[in-house]
Protein backbone atom coordinates (compact mmCIF):
# COMPACT_ATOMS: atom_id res chain seq x y z
CA UNK A 1 0.00 0.00 0.00
CA UNK A 2 1.17 3.53 -0.70
CA UNK A 3 1.72 6.10 2.02
CA UNK A 4 -1.36 7.98 0.80
CA UNK A 5 -3.51 4.84 1.14
CA UNK A 6 -2.15 4.11 4.58
CA UNK A 7 -2.85 7.69 5.68
CA UNK A 8 -6.37 7.57 4.25
CA UNK A 9 -7.11 4.35 6.19
CA UNK A 10 -5.44 5.45 9.41
CA UNK A 11 -8.12 5.54 12.13
CA UNK A 12 -6.04 8.13 14.02
CA UNK A 13 -5.46 10.43 11.03
CA UNK A 14 -7.60 13.25 12.51
CA UNK A 15 -5.24 13.56 15.45
CA UNK A 16 -2.41 14.87 13.30
CA UNK A 17 -4.28 18.11 12.74
CA UNK A 18 -4.29 18.67 16.49
CA UNK A 19 -0.56 19.38 16.41
CA UNK A 20 0.93 22.78 15.73
CA UNK A 21 2.96 23.30 12.57
CA UNK A 22 5.14 26.31 11.95
CA UNK A 23 4.32 27.44 8.42
CA UNK A 24 7.16 29.96 8.41
CA UNK A 25 9.74 27.18 8.76
CA UNK A 26 8.07 23.99 7.57
CA UNK A 27 9.30 20.61 8.71
CA UNK A 28 8.38 18.15 5.99
CA UNK A 29 9.15 15.01 7.97
CA UNK A 30 9.42 15.04 11.77
CA UNK A 31 10.94 11.75 12.84
CA UNK A 32 12.05 12.66 16.33
CA UNK A 33 8.84 12.54 18.36
CA UNK A 34 10.61 10.08 20.67
CA UNK A 35 13.17 12.75 21.65
CA UNK A 36 10.94 15.81 21.77
CA UNK A 37 7.25 15.46 20.96
CA UNK A 38 5.48 18.21 19.04
CA UNK A 39 3.17 20.68 20.76
CA UNK A 40 -0.58 20.36 20.29
CA UNK A 41 -2.52 23.51 19.46
CA UNK A 42 -4.62 22.77 22.55
CA UNK A 43 -1.51 22.86 24.72
CA UNK A 44 -0.41 26.21 23.28
CA UNK A 45 -3.79 27.53 24.35
CA UNK A 46 -3.64 25.77 27.71
CA UNK A 47 -0.19 27.14 28.57
CA UNK A 48 -1.27 30.63 27.55
CA UNK A 49 -4.48 30.45 29.59
CA UNK A 50 -2.48 29.13 32.51
CA UNK A 51 -0.21 32.19 32.33
CA UNK A 52 -3.00 34.73 32.25
CA UNK A 53 -5.76 33.15 34.31
CA UNK A 54 -4.22 30.59 36.63
CA UNK A 55 -0.86 32.17 37.39
CA UNK A 56 -1.81 35.76 36.52
CA UNK A 57 -5.29 35.57 38.03
CA UNK A 58 -5.21 33.17 40.94
CA UNK A 59 -1.65 34.06 42.00
CA UNK A 60 -0.67 32.45 45.30
CA UNK A 61 -4.19 31.09 45.76
CA UNK A 62 -3.44 28.67 42.91
CA UNK A 63 -1.35 26.54 45.28
CA UNK A 64 -4.31 25.82 47.54
CA UNK A 65 -6.74 25.52 44.70
CA UNK A 66 -4.83 23.17 42.42
CA UNK A 67 -1.06 23.18 42.19
CA UNK A 68 -0.13 21.55 45.49
CA UNK A 69 -2.06 18.42 44.46
CA UNK A 70 -1.26 18.62 40.72
CA UNK A 71 1.75 16.23 40.82
CA UNK A 72 -0.58 13.58 42.25
CA UNK A 73 -3.82 14.32 40.37
CA UNK A 74 -1.92 14.41 37.10
CA UNK A 75 0.05 11.31 38.12
CA UNK A 76 -3.24 9.47 38.73
CA UNK A 77 -4.49 10.48 35.31
CA UNK A 78 -1.27 9.34 33.64
CA UNK A 79 -1.52 6.08 35.59
CA UNK A 80 -5.07 5.55 34.37
CA UNK A 81 -4.65 6.38 30.69
CA UNK A 82 -1.12 5.15 29.99
CA UNK A 83 0.51 3.15 32.80
CA UNK A 84 -2.09 0.61 33.88
CA UNK A 85 -1.62 1.94 37.41
CA UNK A 86 -4.42 2.44 39.94
CA UNK A 87 -4.58 5.83 41.65
CA UNK A 88 -2.17 6.80 44.41
CA UNK A 89 1.02 5.26 42.98
CA UNK A 90 2.18 7.80 40.39
CA UNK A 91 3.59 11.28 40.83
CA UNK A 92 4.95 13.90 38.45
CA UNK A 93 8.17 15.26 39.87
CA UNK A 94 11.71 16.18 38.98
CA UNK A 95 13.74 15.47 35.83
CA UNK A 96 13.98 11.80 34.83
CA UNK A 97 17.57 11.71 36.03
CA UNK A 98 16.76 13.08 39.48
CA UNK A 99 13.65 10.92 39.88
CA UNK A 100 15.58 7.84 38.78
CA UNK A 101 18.14 8.59 41.50
CA UNK A 102 15.42 8.94 44.12
CA UNK A 103 13.56 5.82 42.98
CA UNK A 104 16.68 3.65 42.62
CA UNK A 105 18.00 4.75 46.01
CA UNK A 106 14.56 3.97 47.38
CA UNK A 107 14.68 0.53 45.74
CA UNK A 108 18.08 -0.20 47.31
CA UNK A 109 16.71 0.88 50.69
CA UNK A 110 13.81 -1.57 50.32
CA UNK A 111 16.40 -4.39 50.10
CA UNK A 112 18.91 -3.21 52.70
CA UNK A 113 20.76 -6.50 53.09
CA UNK A 114 21.49 -6.92 49.40
CA UNK A 115 24.65 -5.74 47.70
CA UNK A 116 24.10 -5.79 43.94
CA UNK A 117 22.23 -3.75 41.32
CA UNK A 118 21.73 -5.24 37.84
CA UNK A 119 21.69 -3.12 34.66
CA UNK A 120 22.87 -3.34 31.07
CA UNK A 121 25.82 -1.77 29.27
CA UNK A 122 23.65 -0.26 26.56
CA UNK A 123 21.12 1.40 28.85
CA UNK A 124 20.70 5.15 28.41
CA UNK A 125 23.73 7.02 29.84
CA UNK A 126 21.82 8.66 32.68
CA UNK A 127 20.58 5.28 33.87
CA UNK A 128 24.13 3.90 33.97
CA UNK A 129 25.62 7.00 35.60
CA UNK A 130 22.92 7.29 38.27
CA UNK A 131 23.48 3.68 39.31
CA UNK A 132 27.25 4.21 39.28
CA UNK A 133 26.71 7.09 41.68
CA UNK A 134 24.52 4.99 43.98
CA UNK A 135 27.07 2.18 43.88
CA UNK A 136 29.83 4.52 44.99
CA UNK A 137 27.63 6.18 47.58
CA UNK A 138 26.34 3.00 49.21
CA UNK A 139 29.22 0.62 48.44
CA UNK A 140 27.02 -1.57 46.23
CA UNK A 141 28.25 -3.60 43.26
CA UNK A 142 27.03 -3.06 39.69
CA UNK A 143 26.33 -6.28 37.82
CA UNK A 144 26.41 -5.53 34.11
CA UNK A 145 24.48 -7.33 31.39
CA UNK A 146 26.31 -7.15 28.05
CA UNK A 147 23.21 -6.75 25.93
CA UNK A 148 23.26 -6.83 22.14
CA UNK A 149 23.15 -3.24 20.80
CA UNK A 150 20.78 -4.19 18.03
CA UNK A 151 18.33 -5.93 20.29
CA UNK A 152 18.29 -5.48 24.04
CA UNK A 153 17.92 -7.05 27.47
CA UNK A 154 16.25 -10.44 27.26
CA UNK A 155 14.68 -12.22 30.18
CA UNK A 156 17.35 -14.95 30.01
CA UNK A 157 20.09 -12.27 30.34
CA UNK A 158 18.51 -11.14 33.59
CA UNK A 159 17.97 -14.68 34.86
CA UNK A 160 21.69 -15.39 34.28
CA UNK A 161 22.90 -12.71 36.67
CA UNK A 162 20.32 -12.27 39.44
CA UNK A 163 20.77 -13.96 42.79
CA UNK A 164 19.87 -13.53 46.43
CA UNK A 165 22.46 -10.70 46.43
CA UNK A 166 20.43 -8.63 43.93
CA UNK A 167 18.60 -5.64 45.39
CA UNK A 168 16.99 -4.60 42.10
CA UNK A 169 17.17 -4.90 38.33
CA UNK A 170 16.93 -1.73 36.23
CA UNK A 171 15.67 -2.16 32.66
CA UNK A 172 14.64 0.35 30.01
CA UNK A 173 11.33 -1.05 28.82
CA UNK A 174 12.04 0.17 25.28
CA UNK A 175 15.79 0.50 24.63
CA UNK A 176 16.67 4.05 23.57
CA UNK A 177 19.07 2.88 20.88
CA UNK A 178 17.57 -0.21 19.24
CA UNK A 179 13.94 0.22 20.24
CA UNK A 180 13.94 -3.33 21.70
CA UNK A 181 10.82 -3.93 23.78
CA UNK A 182 11.69 -5.88 26.91
CA UNK A 183 9.29 -8.45 28.34
CA UNK A 184 8.39 -6.56 31.52
CA UNK A 185 6.15 -9.14 33.22
CA UNK A 186 8.77 -11.86 32.65
CA UNK A 187 11.52 -9.56 33.97
CA UNK A 188 9.42 -8.93 37.07
CA UNK A 189 8.99 -12.68 37.64
CA UNK A 190 12.70 -13.37 37.25
CA UNK A 191 13.57 -10.58 39.69
CA UNK A 192 10.92 -11.66 42.19
CA UNK A 193 12.04 -15.29 42.04
CA UNK A 194 15.23 -14.25 43.84
CA UNK A 195 13.49 -11.69 46.05
CA UNK A 196 14.76 -8.69 44.04
CA UNK A 197 12.77 -5.72 42.74
CA UNK A 198 12.20 -4.59 39.15
CA UNK A 199 12.70 -0.89 38.33
CA UNK A 200 11.59 0.07 34.83
CA UNK A 201 12.60 3.14 32.87
CA UNK A 202 9.56 3.88 30.71
CA UNK A 203 10.98 6.94 28.92
CA UNK A 204 10.70 5.37 25.47
CA UNK A 205 7.58 3.32 26.04
CA UNK A 206 5.07 5.58 27.78
CA UNK A 207 2.56 6.89 25.25
CA UNK A 208 3.79 4.44 22.62
CA UNK A 209 3.43 0.95 24.10
CA UNK A 210 0.51 -0.15 26.33
CA UNK A 211 1.64 -0.57 29.94
CA UNK A 212 0.10 -2.64 32.75
CA UNK A 213 2.37 -1.88 35.65
CA UNK A 214 -0.03 -3.10 38.35
CA UNK A 215 -0.81 -6.34 36.52
CA UNK A 216 2.80 -7.05 35.51
CA UNK A 217 4.09 -6.79 39.08
CA UNK A 218 6.47 -3.90 38.34
CA UNK A 219 7.82 -2.54 41.64
CA UNK A 220 9.03 0.93 40.70
CA UNK A 221 9.27 2.96 37.52
CA UNK A 222 10.24 6.33 36.10
CA UNK A 223 9.73 7.91 32.70
CA UNK A 224 9.90 11.02 30.59
CA UNK A 225 6.99 13.28 29.63
CA UNK A 226 8.61 15.31 26.83
CA UNK A 227 8.91 12.36 24.43
CA UNK A 228 5.64 10.63 23.42
CA UNK A 229 3.65 12.64 25.99
CA UNK A 230 4.50 15.98 24.31
CA UNK A 231 5.07 17.84 27.59
CA UNK A 232 7.63 20.21 26.07
CA UNK A 233 11.39 20.67 26.55
CA UNK A 234 12.36 19.72 30.10
CA UNK A 235 8.85 18.88 31.26
CA UNK A 236 9.06 16.94 34.53
CA UNK A 237 9.24 13.15 34.68
CA UNK A 238 6.97 10.74 36.54
CA UNK A 239 7.59 8.03 39.09
CA UNK A 240 5.52 4.98 40.00
CA UNK A 241 5.82 3.21 43.34
CA UNK A 242 3.72 0.06 43.69
CA UNK A 243 1.16 0.50 46.49
CA UNK A 244 2.54 -2.38 48.58
CA UNK A 245 5.96 -0.69 48.76
CA UNK A 246 4.74 2.80 49.64
CA UNK A 247 4.59 2.41 53.43
CA UNK A 248 8.28 1.36 53.51
CA UNK A 249 9.49 3.49 50.60
CA UNK A 250 12.06 6.18 51.49
CA UNK A 251 13.81 8.41 48.99
CA UNK A 252 16.97 10.34 49.80
CA UNK A 253 16.01 13.99 49.12
CA UNK A 254 13.98 15.00 52.15
CA UNK A 255 12.19 18.26 51.42
CA UNK A 256 9.27 20.12 52.90
CA UNK A 257 6.82 19.28 50.08
CA UNK A 258 7.21 15.55 50.69
CA UNK A 259 6.74 15.81 54.43
CA UNK A 260 3.57 14.84 56.24
CA UNK A 261 1.57 18.04 56.71
CA UNK A 262 3.96 20.21 54.68
CA UNK A 263 2.56 23.57 55.78
CA UNK A 264 2.88 22.83 59.50
CA UNK A 265 6.61 23.67 59.10
CA UNK A 266 7.41 21.21 61.90
CA UNK A 267 10.78 20.06 63.25
CA UNK A 268 12.12 16.83 61.81
CA UNK A 269 11.28 15.08 58.56
CA UNK A 270 8.44 12.58 58.53
CA UNK A 271 7.51 11.27 55.06
CA UNK A 272 4.02 12.07 53.83
CA UNK A 273 1.57 9.21 53.49
CA UNK A 274 1.39 7.66 50.06
CA UNK A 275 3.12 8.67 46.87
CA UNK A 276 3.56 12.31 47.96
CA UNK A 277 6.68 11.12 49.79
CA UNK A 278 8.44 10.90 46.42
CA UNK A 279 8.23 14.70 46.13
CA UNK A 280 11.05 16.85 47.53
CA UNK A 281 10.40 20.54 46.87
CA UNK A 282 8.02 22.84 45.03
CA UNK A 283 6.76 21.02 41.94
CA UNK A 284 7.47 22.47 38.46
CA UNK A 285 3.82 23.35 37.77
CA UNK A 286 4.46 25.30 34.57
CA UNK A 287 6.10 22.21 33.07
CA UNK A 288 3.05 20.06 33.83
CA UNK A 289 0.59 22.03 31.70
CA UNK A 290 1.24 20.96 28.10
CA UNK A 291 1.29 17.19 28.70
CA UNK A 292 -2.33 17.33 29.85
CA UNK A 293 -3.66 17.58 26.30
CA UNK A 294 -1.76 14.51 25.21
CA UNK A 295 -3.08 12.60 28.23
CA UNK A 296 -6.57 13.66 27.14
CA UNK A 297 -5.93 12.36 23.61
CA UNK A 298 -4.55 9.07 24.96
CA UNK A 299 -7.65 8.76 27.14
CA UNK A 300 -9.85 9.31 24.09
CA UNK A 301 -8.02 6.97 21.71
CA UNK A 302 -6.73 4.30 24.08
CA UNK A 303 -3.21 2.88 24.13
CA UNK A 304 -4.17 -0.18 22.06
CA UNK A 305 -5.08 1.98 19.05
CA UNK A 306 -1.92 4.03 19.54
CA UNK A 307 0.19 0.88 19.58
CA UNK A 308 -1.54 -0.42 16.44
CA UNK A 309 -0.64 2.80 14.60
CA UNK A 310 2.87 2.68 16.02
CA UNK A 311 3.42 -0.85 14.73
CA UNK A 312 2.01 0.10 11.31
CA UNK A 313 4.39 3.09 11.14
CA UNK A 314 7.51 1.13 12.06
CA UNK A 315 6.53 -1.77 9.74
CA UNK A 316 6.07 0.68 6.87
CA UNK A 317 9.37 2.40 7.66
CA UNK A 318 11.19 -0.96 7.63
CA UNK A 319 9.56 -1.94 4.35
CA UNK A 320 10.90 1.26 2.73
CA UNK A 321 14.28 0.83 4.39
CA UNK A 322 14.60 -2.70 2.97
CA UNK A 323 13.70 -1.58 -0.54
CA UNK A 324 15.47 1.80 -0.70
CA UNK A 325 18.23 1.95 1.92
CA UNK A 326 19.56 -1.56 2.46
CA UNK A 327 20.86 -1.65 -1.16
CA UNK A 328 22.84 1.51 -0.30
CA UNK A 329 24.62 -0.22 2.55
CA UNK A 330 22.28 0.72 5.40
CA UNK A 331 21.83 -1.86 8.15
CA UNK A 332 18.72 -2.26 10.28
CA UNK A 333 19.76 -1.98 13.94
CA UNK A 334 16.35 -2.64 15.50
CA UNK A 335 14.33 -5.82 16.01
CA UNK A 336 12.52 -6.75 12.80
CA UNK A 337 9.80 -8.59 14.71
CA UNK A 338 7.16 -6.01 15.70
CA UNK A 339 6.43 -7.80 19.00
CA UNK A 340 9.99 -7.04 20.12
CA UNK A 341 10.01 -3.42 19.00
CA UNK A 342 8.78 -0.16 20.51
CA UNK A 343 7.96 2.98 18.54
CA UNK A 344 11.25 3.74 16.82
CA UNK A 345 13.60 2.19 14.31
CA UNK A 346 17.37 2.60 14.23
CA UNK A 347 19.49 2.35 11.09
CA UNK A 348 23.26 2.21 10.78
CA UNK A 349 25.56 3.61 8.10
CA UNK A 350 29.04 5.09 8.49
CA UNK A 351 27.96 8.35 6.78
CA UNK A 352 24.93 9.00 8.96
CA UNK A 353 26.44 11.82 11.04
CA UNK A 354 26.88 13.99 7.93
CA UNK A 355 23.65 12.73 6.37
CA UNK A 356 21.64 13.78 9.44
CA UNK A 357 23.12 17.27 9.36
CA UNK A 358 22.10 17.66 5.72
CA UNK A 359 18.62 16.23 6.34
CA UNK A 360 17.99 18.81 9.07
CA UNK A 361 18.66 21.65 6.62
CA UNK A 362 15.94 20.30 4.34
CA UNK A 363 13.29 19.93 7.05
CA UNK A 364 13.68 16.18 7.50
CA UNK A 365 14.35 15.62 11.19
CA UNK A 366 15.42 12.23 12.52
CA UNK A 367 18.14 12.11 15.16
CA UNK A 368 21.66 10.82 15.14
CA UNK A 369 22.97 8.48 17.82
CA UNK A 370 26.70 7.90 17.89
CA UNK A 371 28.57 6.13 16.54
CA UNK A 372 26.62 5.69 13.27
CA UNK A 373 22.88 5.44 13.92
CA UNK A 374 19.90 7.34 12.60
CA UNK A 375 16.81 6.89 14.74
CA UNK A 376 13.39 7.26 13.16
CA UNK A 377 11.08 8.08 16.08
CA UNK A 378 7.51 7.70 14.86
CA UNK A 379 5.14 9.31 17.34
CA UNK A 380 1.80 7.65 16.57
CA UNK A 381 -0.57 10.57 17.14
CA UNK A 382 1.44 13.14 15.19
CA UNK A 383 3.25 11.22 12.40
CA UNK A 384 1.85 10.42 8.95
CA UNK A 385 2.91 7.59 6.69
CA UNK A 386 3.70 10.25 4.08
CA UNK A 387 6.23 11.81 6.48
CA UNK A 388 7.89 8.42 6.86
CA UNK A 389 8.08 8.05 3.08
CA UNK A 390 9.53 11.53 2.60
CA UNK A 391 12.06 10.91 5.35
CA UNK A 392 13.32 7.54 4.13
CA UNK A 393 13.54 8.72 0.52
CA UNK A 394 15.46 11.81 1.64
CA UNK A 395 17.97 9.56 3.43
CA UNK A 396 18.38 7.57 0.19
CA UNK A 397 18.97 10.77 -1.79
CA UNK A 398 21.55 12.05 0.66
CA UNK A 399 23.39 8.73 0.66
CA UNK A 400 23.42 8.60 -3.14
CA UNK A 401 24.56 12.21 -3.32
CA UNK A 402 27.69 11.25 -1.43
CA UNK A 403 28.77 8.36 -3.60
C1 LIG B 1 15.23 10.46 27.55
C2 LIG B 1 15.69 9.53 28.65
C3 LIG B 1 16.11 10.05 29.87
C4 LIG B 1 16.18 11.53 30.07
O1 LIG B 1 16.57 11.95 31.32
P1 LIG B 1 16.51 13.52 31.63
O2 LIG B 1 16.81 13.64 33.05
O3 LIG B 1 15.12 13.97 31.25
O4 LIG B 1 17.49 14.20 30.75
C5 LIG B 1 16.47 9.13 30.86
N1 LIG B 1 16.43 7.79 30.64
C6 LIG B 1 16.04 7.29 29.44
C7 LIG B 1 16.00 5.81 29.23
C8 LIG B 1 15.67 8.14 28.41
O5 LIG B 1 15.30 7.65 27.25
UniProtKB/TrEMBL annotation:
Q: Which Pfam families match?
A: KYNU_C (PF22580)
Please give the catalytic activity noted in the UniProt record. Answer: 3-hydroxy-L-kynurenine + H2O = 3-hydroxyanthranilate + L-alanine + H(+); L-kynurenine + H2O = anthranilate + L-alanine + H(+)
- Which keywords does this chain's UniProt record carry? Hydrolase, Pyridine nucleotide biosynthesis, Pyridoxal phosphate
* Pathway given in the UniProt record: Amino-acid degradation; L-kynurenine degradation; L-alanine and anthranilate from L-kynurenine: step 1/1; Cofactor biosynthesis; NAD(+) biosynthesis; quinolinate from L-kynurenine: step 2/3
Indicate the family of this protein.
Belongs to the kynureninase family.
Its protein name is: Kynureninase
InterPro entries in the record: Kynureninase, PyrdxlP-dep_Trfase, PyrdxlP-dep_Trfase_major, PyrdxlP-dep_Trfase_small
EC class name: hydrolase
Q: Does the keyword Hydrolase apply?
A: yes
How would you summarize the oligomeric state and partners of this protein? Answer: Homodimer.
Keyword Hydrolase recorded: yes
Please explain the role this protein plays, according to its UniProt record. Catalyzes the cleavage of L-kynurenine (L-Kyn) and L-3-hydroxykynurenine (L-3OHKyn) into anthranilic acid (AA) and 3-hydroxyanthranilic acid (3-OHAA), respectively.
Q: Which cofactor does it need?
A: pyridoxal 5'-phosphate
GO terms assigned for molecular function: kynureninase activity
* Source species: Rhodococcoides corynebacterioides
Per the UniProt record, which EC number(s) apply here? 3.7.1.3
Amino acid sequence: MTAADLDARDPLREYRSRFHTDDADPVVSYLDGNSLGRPTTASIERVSTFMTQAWGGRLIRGWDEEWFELPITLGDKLGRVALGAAAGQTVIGDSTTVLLYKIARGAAALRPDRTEMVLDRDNFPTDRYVLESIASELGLTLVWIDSDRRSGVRTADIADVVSERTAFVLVSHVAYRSGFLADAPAAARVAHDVGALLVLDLSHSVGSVPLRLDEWGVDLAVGCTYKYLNGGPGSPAFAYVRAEHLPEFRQPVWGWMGRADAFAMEQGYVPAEGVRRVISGTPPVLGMIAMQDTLDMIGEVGMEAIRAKSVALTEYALELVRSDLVPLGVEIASPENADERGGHVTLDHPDFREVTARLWTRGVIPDFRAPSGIRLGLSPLSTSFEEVRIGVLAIAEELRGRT
